[in-house]
Design a protein that fits this description.
By secondary structure, this protein is of the alpha+beta class. It has a domain of 178 residues: Glutaredoxin, CATH 3.40.30. The protein is built from eight helices and twelve strands. The protein has a six-stranded mixed beta sheet with strand order 1-10-9-4-5-6, covered by helices on one side. Strands 2-3 form a two-stranded antiparallel ribbon. A hairpin with a 5-residue loop joins β2 and β3. The radius of gyration is 35 Å and the shape is globular. The two termini are 47 Å apart.
């Protein structure tokens, strides 16, 4: 079977600021230098006058300790400046606080940075998610538009569960536990097997989720339609010469308004016989990260 066509993965078009150019700094520096007056060479007569002045005795050399007397008015002005600076510094410290060097970094709630690193979390531009109109495991039509008002997490895996499915299923199950029954987050799994696109009410992928399967939508559809979904979401699906389905793994977070928010990259360890596993701790942490991101989107 020929490889199923696919599109390149979605690449977030992050806004780019104007970079600071080193050449710009150099240009300014050159301009300053060229504007500085260049001292002219001294004539012979001028040099003699300079040397003669340098050899004259210093009129202050007879003062005790070599100190030059300072007028009292200057002393008063200097003291006044110190007082003003001291009071101003105290006021600034009171309202602004100590310098940033002594301020500790803000706390990282629930280890968000570490969880995002585990997810390979990447924020996406807030554009509307590509349309999805497929069929769920009950044979009913399911569309992304009908989920407006609820955050949606999209996963992609074979409904025969012969890919990363065992790992993703465990992560989805733990994510549902972390979300709780009162959550408005919806989770949908899109089939990635072009050879097996029929509606299955009890697929191996559903069985892998156990009792959590009833809280998840398993979506499939005709090749022409589901291939559009794969291509729109950057999922590359191919069938190799041995008939093995190969695809990249990605999960998308869609907000309540139907806009793309972020993506994550599920992962696992593949054995020689092609089975995927992942440690329990990594599965639990990945699920917690997914739940945290989804929950952050479940707000008006």
């Amino acid at each position: 079977m020929a490889p199923v066509p696919f599109a390149r993965a979605l690449a977030p078009q992050l806004p780019t600021g104007e970079p600071v150019s080193a050449s710009w700094n150099c240009a300014v520096r050159r301009e300053i230098v060229t504007q500085s007056p260049t001292p002219a060479a001294l004539s012979e007569e001028e040099r003699r006058r300079v040397f003669a002045a340098a050899l004259e005795p210093n009129p202050t050399s007879g003062l005790k300790g070599g100190r030059i007397p300072i007028p009292p008015r200057v002393v008063w002005w200097v003291a006044l400046c110190f007082v003003v600076l001291g009071v101003g510094g105290a006021i600034a410290e009171h309202f602004v606080g100590a310098g940033s060097a002594g301020v500790p970094a803000p706390p990282d709630p629930a280890g968000t940075s570490a969880l995002n690193a585990l997810l390979s979390y990447k924020a996406l531009p807030r554009t509307y998610a590509p349309s999805i109109v497929l069929t769920d495991q009950r044979g009913r039509a399911w569309s992304l538009r009908s989920q407006l008002g609820h955050p949606v997490v999209l996963f992609f895996m074979n409904q025969r569960c012969n890919d990363l499915c065992p790992v993703i299923s465990s992560e989805i199950s733990d994510t549902l536990k972390d979300l709780g029954t009162s959550s408005g987050v919806r989770i949908a799994v899109i089939n990635t097997d072009p050879r097996d696109l029929g509606v299955l009410s009890n697929s191996p992928a559903q069985a892998a989720l156990g009792s959590s399967a009833r809280s998840v939508e398993f979506l499939t559809g005709p090749l022409s339609i589901i291939n559009y979904v794969w291509a729109s979401y950057g999922v590359q699906v191919e069938v190799d010469k041995n008939g093995q389905v190969v695809h990249n793994d990605v999960a998308y977070f869609i907000d309540r308004a139907g806009r793309l928010n972020a993506l994550a990259v599920p992962f696992g360890n593949e054995s020689r016989n092609g089975r995927f596993t992942l440690s329990t701790s990594n599965i639990e942490q990945f699920a917690l990260g997914v739940a945290n991101v989804a929950t952050s989107l479940d707000k008006p």
